[in-house]
Structure formats: structure tokens, C-alpha cells
Amino acid sequence: MLRKNHALLYLFLLVAVLLAACTPETAGTAPTTPPPQIQSAGDNNAPSKDLVIGFEADAATMLANTDVNYVTDVQIRNIYDPLIDRDKNGALIPVLATEWKNLDPLTWEFKLRQGVKFTNGEPFHADAVKYNIDYILDEKNNSFYRSRWKDIKEVKVVDENTVQIITVQPFPTLLLRIADDLLIMAPKHTQEVGLEKAATDPVGTGPYKFEKWTRDESLQLVANDEYWQGAPTIKKLTFKIIPEFSARLSAFLSGEIHLFKNVPVDSVERVKNSDNGKIEMVGSSRINYVALNTFYDGPLKDKRVRQAINYAIDVDELLKSVLNGYGTKMTGPLSKVNADYTETKDYGYDPDKAIALLKEANIDPKTLKLQLDTPNGRYPMDTHVAQAIASQLQKIGITVTVQANEWGNHLAKIRQHEMKDMFILGWGPAFDAQGTIENLFTEKAPYSGFHDKEVEAMIQKALPVFDPAERKKGFDELQHRLVEEAAWVPLWQQGDLYAVDKNLEFTPRADEKFAVFEMKWAK
Amino acid sequence: MLDYLIKRTVQVLVVLFLALTTVFFLIRLSGDPTALFLPPDAPREQLEEFRKALGFDRPLLVQYTEFMTNAVQGDFGTSLRTREDALQTVLSRIPATFQLAFTALGLSLLISIPIGIHSAYKRNTWFDQTGVAFTVLGQALPSFWLGLLLIYVFAVQFKWLPTGGGGSAVHLILPALTLAAYSVARFARFTRSTMLDVLRKDYIRTAKASGVPMYKILSMYALKNTLIPIITLVALDLGVLLGGAVIVEVVFAWPGLGRLLMQSLLGRDFPVVMAGVFFIAFIYSVINFVVDVLYAYVNPQIRFK
After folding, report:
1. Cβ neighbours for A456, distance < 8 A, ≥ 6 positions apart
2. Which pLDDT value is given to residue A28?
3. Which residues contact A454 (CB under 8 A, 6 or more apart)?
4. pTM of this structure
5. Is residue A238 a contact partner of residue A223, using CB atoms and an 8 Å limit?
6. Which of A328, A419, B47, B203 is the most exposed place for a label (fewest CB within 10 A)?
7. ipTM of the complex
8. Chain B: residue nearest A33 by CA?
9. Distance (Å, whole) CA A391 – CA A396
10. Burial (Cβ within 10 Å: 0-12, 13-18, ≥19) of residue A244
């Protein structure tokens, strides 16, 4: 009887081990023969094949200009056109606006594209621009974009194809706001059906028409064959919502989705080794950094300590060993894709200098105990990066405690000034100097943890400058100064990794958009 | 009986009240929701303005009183994220969750009861042992891992089934199996042990002695007496299945209540969380209420205690 029990136990163990061998981690490395069904080989030749993009979360609403959220924006941008867009490198290009100029520092005039129609047949005219900007400004609509647009005094319709935007004070970054925030909804449709209905039944001038939205399942769009830039080659587009990463990867490997963003660096090989997948990478405008908190009453208030930490963290090594090279090193507050980037000094890795600086500040590194907060899963390998930084600082004797936070808590701790010595954070899209420097290094901005009266004065001086050359000079000086102050430890431009179907022609963009109009199937 | 019904109804209301109160205060410990909604460059004035508009700037007790007053009238407010009615948002997810939970329940009963009966009948044979081993396995595997494993085998390798999503019966198979795994184990073991007790009873021995065929004894006499405690267990497990669906719904991208709650919690969408908690507490209470009333109906001793 007992013997029999044992035999069964072994059998059970064997089954368990066999099952365990089927887990993705172990099975992926084995050189198994490819499964017989190579991703629906039949319709690969058809260039009009439908496209399914996998996404981690659903859009909050189909209304434009409402929810400041990458996930919402990136989906509805296929339905609505902007006035101005960015090209792949982040430079501004005309879309529904064809040209623009300043009549004076407070008045901007935009010429609009003629002959464009919304997908419900409504013509696109200047009143649509006015309607959408007024929509943002109207408190009743609770648009999360309003704070960025509050300097707009009035939008004036000059004629059908000309519109003027009048600002309260000079608004040098208005074009960026227009490019990054403003999308044009059909005014008549929106007013007729009401906002509540329009939130689930959007009409724009974009390359795709709305078909069906099932919350937390999928958003289905069809090509707008009347699109003013020509009919899209991909006729049907679906955004499929799959919250869990492993499930997203599985859906990709099984051919259910053709494209998804944010492949963790440790899963890159699996996608590369699959039959239907390839990896595309682009240096995103999103930057990752370690904030050195001067709002917190700790040793980092001393510039020399901040500099010492800059010397003691080996960013190249982190990139190589933790991120497998998927990222682009930064040395200052702005990345190279930022239009206002200027080359600044690189602290490099120099532990001896770090120790010397600490000595100068009268600090024995062995007594220095710091806390490093990191979000968990928000940025590529974030908690691993934090651990690696802790061990690098340990090499010169500093003890670092790593605290991993759920994202909402992490953000709340920063906003409420509850962070201790250091924290990891990302920032993006970061295409211009003001968007980064004003929002990170002034007193009201908690995200870099750095504040200095002189630097604040320099920033306030640079902000309202209207002349481009003058403006650039101000921001160049600021970049050097911030590096000199060791305001933070810049890490890298995030390398955005996309899993892409082998037959899909897709070039990832620095602004992280999925512009499906630009994509097509090979052959 | 009426006294008993009234007493139990009051108890249900107290449970709902306590659940809502606890969650209300706990969720507010998780931090201010405004940070997650406004753009990071929003100035402090706008943050304050937004907090004010949502009423988060008022003392907690005032917020609580207002919430309770509205909740009693069925108004849980609007979702901070989608601006839609919170309770409606929750209710729209119920069909998907029920579909998953009941399929899993049916599946686990279909699998577990025959296994349990057969194990009891063939006690200590290879069938019994393997059955026990598998039920232990089912209970020990985290549903998260089991779900991914099933996706990998049936969706990625064989491509027989979709990896996830909702909509059709085909989409239901893997998540229902995953969710059922745990209950199968519980039910099968419970059926086995109850059946063993029943089989030891005198009347079974008498039936055997008088030459009633074994299949008839099992299916007619023993099964009926085994079913009563199983029904209790099923009623209790339905709550577990509805709650346990959270992980399974996330892994399989199933558009149910569990996933909505998880997402709303991470996104600090307080009104939706409260409406969801209310609904789950309500279902739990109602199931327990019905079971208790049935008991009282069956066994008068209970209601006079």
C-alpha cells in the first residue's frame, strides 16, 4: 500500500515537471521546430490585411481635448487630425493648418487647409478650430488640458479658412501646445448629439472612421477612403486591450495582434526568435533620471554631495548590464531629440573624485545612508536599475535603501513632497526646453526635487523671451548651469521597444504615436 | 419566520454599511487621486481647483456623510476617468463576470462530482490516488500561472483557442477552466469525504445486503444525501468565484467586474471602486441570506434559536 503511494507520488512529480517545462521561460529557449501553422500564411500577400494593435489599457473617452493620457491620445489620433503635427523626429509639420505667423507677440494667425471634410460630411472651417479651443477653455467640460491653455484670451474666426488666436501674454510655446494637445472634433456633430453621446461616437477628419468601441475589449476603426491625404492602405484597424504583459506577448506570438509597444528587455529575444515577429527600437523623447531631492532636508542639499553621486553612478554600465543596451545615454537635462538640446559636460564615472568631493563636504561615505524610491514597472527595468544604482553607490561606501512603490503612490509622494533623498522618474514627451525645464526645475515643480533661487531666476527670465535666438541662448545657459549644479543624475532616453509583425512596415516614432496611416503590409 | 427574516435583513444592511464605510476610509489612505488625472505640468492652483471640484478638499467626515447619503439613494457619483455613472459602469460589467463565474461553477461541478463519487467508491485505488493528486495540484497552482500556462499551450502552441478577450463561447473556455481549477479541487475532495461518510451508513449496508445494484445505491441513495452539504459549499464558493475572477479576468483580458475594479483601484477612480465594492458585498450578503433562509426553512430549530 505504502509502496504504491510512492509510485503515484513520483508519477505526479513527473507530470508536474513536464508541465513546468511548458512555461514560456523554459520553452522559449529550446530550439523547437516551428509550429506548422505559420501565422495565417494565406493572407500575408494581401496588402489590405487588417491590423490589430495590442494595448495595455483602454481609452478613457473618445472625445478629443479632454483626457491627458497617452493611451487615449494615441488611439483617437487615428480618428481626429491635429492642426499641426510632428514628423518622426519631432519637428513641426502642417496638417489642418497650412501656415501660421505672428501678427504681434499676442496674436497668432493660422491659414487652414481647404476642402477638408469631416467623416459625417461636415466641412472643416475656422469655426471648428474655435469650437475645439473653446471646448478646452470651458470649465464646464472639465478638460484636463485646460491649465495648459489658460493663457488664451480669445479665438477669432477671420474668414472660413483663417483663424486668429489671441493670448493674454506672449505664449512662445503655443505651437507646441497645438501640436501635442489639440485635435479637431466635428463641431456640428458634437453639438447635435451632445457630449455624452459624442464620447462614444466620435467624428473627425482623420484617416480612420469610428466603427465600434467595446470598453476594455477593443476599439474598431475602418479606413476613411475619402481622407484628404488619400485612402489608408490598411482598411480595418483594431486596438485590442490586453492588460497583462505575458498575455499580450502570447497574443502576439499566436498572431492575434500584430504590434505592441513596451517589450521588456528580457523578452526581446523571444520576439526575435519567433516565426512572425521582429523588434523595432527608437530612442523615445521620454527621459529617465534619478532625482536628487533638495526639498528634503538631507545631505543632498549640498551641491558637492550631488556631484559626488553623479560621479559615482556609472550610467554606461547600467545601460549595458541592466537595459541590455536599449537606451541612449544622456548627460544633461535635455535629450538629443529635444529641439533645444545643447551639449553639456559629462560627469562620467569617477569614484575617486566622488570620494574626494564627499571628503571636501566633510562627509564620511560610510555614514551616509540614503533612500532611493522607484516605481515598480513604470519604466524599463526600473526596480532593477534602482538596485544596480544602490550597489554602485555601495562601492564608495554609501548605503542606499531601495523603496519600490506602486505608481500611484510614487506620484503622490512626489507631488506631496514626501520623497526622501532620491527617486527615479521619467518625463515625456520632452521635445522642447520649456516643457522640461520649467516643469521640472522651478519651485512649483516637484518632479526633479531640485530647486535653487538663482536657477529659478534664470528660468523665469528665459521663459517669456520671444526671439528664438535669444531664447535658445537662455536655455543653453540653463542646461550648463543645471549640469554644474548636479541638479539630478540624468540616465537615458528610454529606448522604446516594439514587437512588430515581420510583414508590417512600421517605423516607430520618437513621440510614441501609432500613426496607422503611415503603416502598410509588405507585398 | 417573519421575525427571523427581518432580523437577517437588518444584518445584511449592517454588513453593507460596514463594508462601504471601511472601504471608503481605506481607499482614501491610498492617496490623493488628483495627481493621476491632471497632466504632470498642471500648476498647483489647478490641482487645488480640481480637488475642490471633486470635493476632496473637504474634511473626510463631510465627504463620508455626503457619500453615504447619496449611496443610500443609489447614487455613487460619476467615474473620475470616464465621467460616466459609476454604478452603471459597474453594472455593465456584471454579465461578463457572471458568465465567467457560472461557467466555471458548472464546469467544476461537472468534473468534480463524478471524480469525487468514483474516488470514494474506489477508495485507495490508483484512481483515487491520482484524483487526489490532481485535485491538490488544482488547488496549489496559482490561477495567474495556470492561466498563462493554458494560454501558452492552447493559444500559442496549438492555436486552437484565442489568448484572451471577450465576446464568444470560444473566448470563455480557457478563463473558465482556469477559474474552475480551484473549485474542482475543493468540490471533488468534499464530495469524496462526504460520500465516504454516507457509504458507511447503515442504510447503505442494508441496501447492499438486500441486493440493490451498486450503481443504483450510488446514484439514488448515496448521491442525494451527499448533495445537501455540497449545495452549501457551492453557494459559498460562488462568492469566491466572483471575487477570484479578478486575476483570471486580468490575465485573459476578460471584460468583467474584477478587471474593472483592479483598474479603478490602480487609477484611484474612487466612485467606481465604491460602486464595485458595494455590488460585491451585496451579492455576498444576498447569497448568504438566501442560504440561511433556506436552512431556516428546512430546519425550524435554527429560526427559533
Report:
1. A441, A442, A443
2. 34
3. none
4. 0.82
5. no
6. B203
7. 0.82
8. B157
9. 9
10. buried
